[in-house]
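Hi R.,

Here's the chain you asked about this morning:
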Amino acid sequence: VYLGGAAGLVGSVGQASYAVAKAGLFGLTRAVALEMAGRDVCVNYVAPFAFTRMTESIPPVTDELRQYLESAPLATPGDIAPFIAWLCSPEAAGVSGQVLGARGAEIAVWSQPRPRQQLVEVTGWDGPALNRTARPGLDEHLTPLESEFELFGTPPVAVARA
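And the predicted structure, written out as tokens:
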């Protein structure tokens, strides 16, 4: 199990070096999962969402983010540990090459890069052809540029504590 992060999947303001390291783990996850397929070895990328010393050290860059952080229930690393342990158990056999998220009481399967739209210009692409055909054909398929906080839009569901 590689511990990645949403920063490696959607980016994070002020954390370019962290984001590139975590994005590299995504590529490594897929490559190793393919290499180990058929050998009963599962390899996965987990993006944990938990409040830690590292996340506390990142200043909020917008008022919305500041409000979110003030109101969000604190998801802890301990909330995520049972999911990681399960992925390493025989019960998770066959779950491999996946991008998964863990956030408080939530787990998620993330989408992975796949072509969403392909356009062909048999005479080759030039500026006018790109403007005429490619731009309108691509615009509706572009991924919005949003942070992990904008992506979720709600605080994590808190784990019920006894």
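The longest strand covers residues 45-49.

Let me know if you need anything else.
M.
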